[in-house]
Amino acid sequence: MLRLSAPGCERLLQTPSFDAEFCGAEANVAVGLAHFGVKVDMVTALPENTIGDAAVNALRGFGVGTEHIIRCGDRLGICFVEAGAGYRPARVLYDRAGSSLAEVPAGAFDWPRALEGADWLHITGITPAVSRKAADATLKAVQAARELGVKVSCDANYRSTLWRYCESPIPIMTEIVKGVTLLSAGADDFEQMLGLAGQADDYVSLFEALSAEAMDTFPNLQYVAGTVRDVRSASSNGWSGVLRSRAGVLRAKRYEIDHIVERIGTGDAFTAGLLYGLVNGKANQEALELAVAAGCLKHSIPRDLARMTLDEVEGLVSASSVRVRR
Amino acid sequence: MLRLSAPGCERLLQTPSFDAEFCGAEANVAVGLAHFGVKVDMVTALPENTIGDAAVNALRGFGVGTEHIIRCGDRLGICFVEAGAGYRPARVLYDRAGSSLAEVPAGAFDWPRALEGADWLHITGITPAVSRKAADATLKAVQAARELGVKVSCDANYRSTLWRYCESPIPIMTEIVKGVTLLSAGADDFEQMLGLAGQADDYVSLFEALSAEAMDTFPNLQYVAGTVRDVRSASSNGWSGVLRSRAGVLRAKRYEIDHIVERIGTGDAFTAGLLYGLVNGKANQEALELAVAAGCLKHSIPRDLARMTLDEVEGLVSASSVRVRR
Amino acid sequence: MLRLSAPGCERLLQTPSFDAEFCGAEANVAVGLAHFGVKVDMVTALPENTIGDAAVNALRGFGVGTEHIIRCGDRLGICFVEAGAGYRPARVLYDRAGSSLAEVPAGAFDWPRALEGADWLHITGITPAVSRKAADATLKAVQAARELGVKVSCDANYRSTLWRYCESPIPIMTEIVKGVTLLSAGADDFEQMLGLAGQADDYVSLFEALSAEAMDTFPNLQYVAGTVRDVRSASSNGWSGVLRSRAGVLRAKRYEIDHIVERIGTGDAFTAGLLYGLVNGKANQEALELAVAAGCLKHSIPRDLARMTLDEVEGLVSASSVRVRR
Amino acid sequence: MLRLSAPGCERLLQTPSFDAEFCGAEANVAVGLAHFGVKVDMVTALPENTIGDAAVNALRGFGVGTEHIIRCGDRLGICFVEAGAGYRPARVLYDRAGSSLAEVPAGAFDWPRALEGADWLHITGITPAVSRKAADATLKAVQAARELGVKVSCDANYRSTLWRYCESPIPIMTEIVKGVTLLSAGADDFEQMLGLAGQADDYVSLFEALSAEAMDTFPNLQYVAGTVRDVRSASSNGWSGVLRSRAGVLRAKRYEIDHIVERIGTGDAFTAGLLYGLVNGKANQEALELAVAAGCLKHSIPRDLARMTLDEVEGLVSASSVRVRR
Amino acid sequence: MLRLSAPGCERLLQTPSFDAEFCGAEANVAVGLAHFGVKVDMVTALPENTIGDAAVNALRGFGVGTEHIIRCGDRLGICFVEAGAGYRPARVLYDRAGSSLAEVPAGAFDWPRALEGADWLHITGITPAVSRKAADATLKAVQAARELGVKVSCDANYRSTLWRYCESPIPIMTEIVKGVTLLSAGADDFEQMLGLAGQADDYVSLFEALSAEAMDTFPNLQYVAGTVRDVRSASSNGWSGVLRSRAGVLRAKRYEIDHIVERIGTGDAFTAGLLYGLVNGKANQEALELAVAAGCLKHSIPRDLARMTLDEVEGLVSASSVRVRR
Amino acid sequence: MLRLSAPGCERLLQTPSFDAEFCGAEANVAVGLAHFGVKVDMVTALPENTIGDAAVNALRGFGVGTEHIIRCGDRLGICFVEAGAGYRPARVLYDRAGSSLAEVPAGAFDWPRALEGADWLHITGITPAVSRKAADATLKAVQAARELGVKVSCDANYRSTLWRYCESPIPIMTEIVKGVTLLSAGADDFEQMLGLAGQADDYVSLFEALSAEAMDTFPNLQYVAGTVRDVRSASSNGWSGVLRSRAGVLRAKRYEIDHIVERIGTGDAFTAGLLYGLVNGKANQEALELAVAAGCLKHSIPRDLARMTLDEVEGLVSASSVRVRR
Question: pTM of this prediction?
């Protein structure tokens, strides 16, 4: 996806220019993992034109493998973004109709080849939201992974303004999540995408209830993860995360983020940190702490991509101070 | 007025470029009202040159009517602006000597035609501060409105560095306010522009006293409005507003703004919100809440103009969270 | 030194451009003093090329005397900077190997001429960190000053990534500090550069102990100054300062800085404020308050240099509010 | 259409930013005419979102009427542009699939109302190239104009990379041109869009033959216009124009343009100049000279829109020198 | 003067930002001379505000002396500039009404002190065009110079859009030129400012006639200089110069400039080159060649100031090739 | 190398920002070849820091292999660049002292592994100019290639301001060229680097003589290539190339480049085109035409790198027109 954002804190087209970055919920996780030294390949569809070429170059520059990217279709999906500040929330306006990814036939990807040697497949709930074809392709990917013994991570990422081709995401997402090992979800995701709702005094308790329900409903699930966010303003959030495994729920260090540069992409950085931990056999608590620290740091980095090193993330986990590094 | 501001948080001419925007206390209200769907015309004087043309185009683009703008004189007034941050306040340096507005003869405007069909005329105390001619023109406008049964809104906006042609603004402003329906003013304004002073334990009590005194002094006044600002730093303010009508004083929801992008123009956004409410027959409390929310949101938008929709303002009035909008 | 920084809050080379500024620990103090109206000359070495010319022009533009600058050597030292935000600290990457200053022979400077008529010589611990030649030059400067009765100010400024030509800075810095009148130092500086360590419940107590020890060790010292910083995040710090004279320790007003635009150069602004006070015969308490206010204001100004007037600093010392200045 | 262009002479995404402008073959003519003081309305379809709002504001700012614009559909069409230089031609990459204009039902426009009081309707061959629906809408517009006695101008503008929904544009364009009064076309347009081909020693002779053939084929045609371009490089062109009326062919002054800032939009400026002349009853020769001068000047203005005054165009027609204007 | 120019080849306010530079006909010559190593002081009036401070810093940075600058008045004059290209000429829009320089009393300058030790005083015909006060100040300066034996250089620089306070510049300029040693003028200048007109087949012959007439009329004149420009387009000019002394007329090498980056300030660079030669006792022919080469090079440098070294100018005088310098 | 260039046509630090690009004579060829679809690896030394990481990412993004890059040393070499225009030549200021490449031990590279499977090794005369160590490393590379049957391409690229560690490059370059298959050189290169001088009426004849002499002197040489440039100005050049093989001298199509955007890197694009042809077994004439066309196109692309496709180069070889591509 091509992200076009207004400069600084401006409103869209306040000045007639855009900052550009190739990104997307899956690409953000891939780039984050590559920064952490994990070998990662992107599987997607891009148009056979200059914009598609530039997207490939961008991913490749970060060390993300691009050989399984299919080149077809008319256009690259676009999103227009303006950053939030204070009482004005960030806004994302999707322009994804007719994109290569929305139109790619489900059978176009050679999943056995793409997944060869892989430990994990990561998908999100945004791709199936784009079109029925994309939903079919996502389901096919999950099924192929399952047959090949590749674990599947899925970030639910409910987007109400997408999901326009069907009545409800629930039947589709239910089918997908049946093959998922690690589900990342929040309260809206559980309810809108899986039909699981509940009530509790605080968000973590709610997550505990819903994630337990999810584990009951989907026996394949080994992990359910969630970010914990206390939105004081668009510029200041409390931030943490929780991880349920079959052994119970873990909580992590909480960060008080007082100057949010960019809110978008922080959940993807969380996921990249978590997958880094799981791929590298870290203990669940450590993996969760890395995830939360990665997501925390991402709030300080403009645009979607998690441009940070493992050193920085590990440093934050054990940090006593945010002093200048010289 | 042409606003020339240093990029980001830079000091003036730290780098040799300026961001430009056409604005001004009256234009800001006009553009805010146009964003809220109110039909509005600007009456001012602009030079007959490329800069004047660009100002007309800018206003027209926002949907502000420009047919009553007079083209005459030598130059468009300029202000140089640097944003504040932390302990450094924002600064405005006026360069308005000899501007078209300062030099336009009071009789140049055809007020009966300009006010035809209007509900409200909005003026500010900045125009009469620029020159005696501009003060005369303002007074003429108020008198014409009164004769035509058009209500008059006046934002006092005391600027100590202007008001150089006379000893004190008090005689002039007193004459003007005699025709005003809605006066927006703060403690400095009451004292420096109307000669009304007082003392109280807190700002709202002081406003209550001064606004009561104003209502006594000026029987035409139906409303006295004020913003309430608790300046913790140039980046963090408490923010609310008060509105006195003949029925008493109303207070509004208070916002803790923790990341101020732009301080300038927030009072004008407040006024635009208030006038929107009054023009559309909202209850006084609702009008005040819209005013305060509009002013609150404006703190997040760079430069002077209130680039925000009614949806956003209404959303903030009833908001429970500042989450990303996708 | 040529500072190359990423735009806004970006990471280095996130977009392919750099903001440039000529600066450095000594230059920052010089430019700050020039802003405060103090006559000041810079003594350094710059290459005989366009970059060196531009550095001279920049200093001269601020009113810093440049006639004692030696033009020699291969290159101007560079530092790459990215601003911090929230939990991400600012970063400085030095590229100073082989710079004109690192390679200049200690005898190249004509100190008696350069110091003629001077009250103070200001040096920092960064120059001796760059190379042995630079350390020798620094020592020669201090000795010349002492012989000429010129007081010496030294900001310790320990930089662990420099100091690569020797085992430890302690022998060199001990020799230098023997000639110093005013030492600015923090806990790391005392320990790493002078071998003075201690423990205390809070930072100010620790400073009291270490500065007392320093005064015992170095009888020439008349003042030991230090900034007091409570790092809540890269964007929010508590900030103050302390000054020990032979009469005891003075503390200053504390500022809660809630939106840090630039962390780099704040210590240099503190020093400029302090030297301004001492040069102009202010009382110690007043000098310290000016120093702390100057450093506080500097947090709001992008890049290294202390672009602020004496009026602004004095205004902050006595400020009741951070309101817009028009 | 939203034009996203690389800064200066850069290749697309050489740096990660785009300059943005709302434009398009029809919008360019509308904005040009508005600059020349002609009352003009735009009829098109734009999405009901922030991007659509910004497009409306942009047109309105130039004085183009926007009340007949329909708000519907998913997205605004986009084009990516890089400027040419020397031996590298300018490039345009269309991203128009699924745009509001491509999907708008032909019956959505109320042509009798939109054309009320109009002298001319201007269309181009780009709209029917986008989709069958858009072609139907174009044909409907032409037929409505004909019935209402409104003259129709059509700029053929053959774009080989569009026109993907049908075998050939010829049947569609033939039907459209049956209702056209003024056709602007070049050799490619005649051949690919109307099936009229020919051969001649030079371009003007070829145009004479093809335009005569067109007049024979389409008895409604009163004018056939064409630009004459001698492409020495992407930076240097010879430039003129020809106009056939029923009275014969007129040629115009030829300009040697030696520094092309922007090649895109020059044909649209030519059309705006021509329509200005015809609307205002200028003699054919004078109208053609204005068209050629407008197109010539447009080569000096970045991006699509013809930002120039009538004075400037008329000045060029009679110019003796290109001296600085102060 | 503060120059505000549109970025690149854009039209004014095409994008909402300006590039800024402090300049002016006299400042440009001063900065050019400082680049060539000539000791030079600027005498002017600037407002006592941040903008005035920045102007002082800019001049001082280039090595121009600023101690004779008076700080008074309301504002710094502004000019808005857009660069030309091809058939579109560069444009300058003056906004100088009410500037410090226009309002400064003629007696405010202490000319004997300012001219102490000077060889030359350089003035232009733009200052007397701004206001009668400025004309009086200019005349006083010339008279003071004459009394002190300081030679006077005057660049006539006729600007038709200034000169608004009087019927004709001729009486004023005639009085001024009576004290001038070196007059730089073109055909318009001779006619509009001195009432000297003529006719000839080519421009150089015309200059020969008019300069001879000027020498007859003004016996104090030792030199009359002129630039020779053959305007093929705003991007391509032939360029040379002529110099009449009492010994006759000298012509210089002619340059064919094929890519003009900036047309403004080229005459001032010519004057700086000429004065450099005269101040340093170069032969008249050599001085003229330096002047023409300096003016030629200036066409390649954005904005007003002659940012070039003497080496570069001398290199061009004897150049055989424009190869890359590494 | 990190290239820091002034924006547009500005002089260095005219505004305080730099455009950045990772490039260098060898990297430019590598990136050009990667654009043409040739598999290519870069062998160099980069510092182990953020700047080095960014350089690796940039190369990898273009598809250049980076696994043989050694990470060591203190700094990445820098060059400061300003573009030329008209009579002002482009300028390059090297800042390469103490760079990782200058300090890397000759034995650090594992050439047998790096060259495994390679057809060609490409080197330039800039690397040995940087330091004796770098010269040794270059020689080692050539010798390894020779032993492994890998052909060697060498672009002489004489830079007089480098080559500071020895009296003359001739002994070193002679030793290197003994192992070279394809030498690219101009008249200065032959003379200063190989001691071969001559005289002829025109440049091509001179090249014929010198290249023949080179072939006599170095029996290993199979090709000697040269660019042919007729420098009319910094903005306008005639451009072609010549290629001598053992079968004689071939000449190519000549291009008249009338608007040079960037002069730097054009020789490297020529070399990339030539190597593309030789690697892919094109006939010598075809390879030369591709080289000349690639170099020609590069004049239109800002900064060093040859960002162009093979289609574009081949298109230019057979081009009839430079029309807009849509």
Answer: 0.97
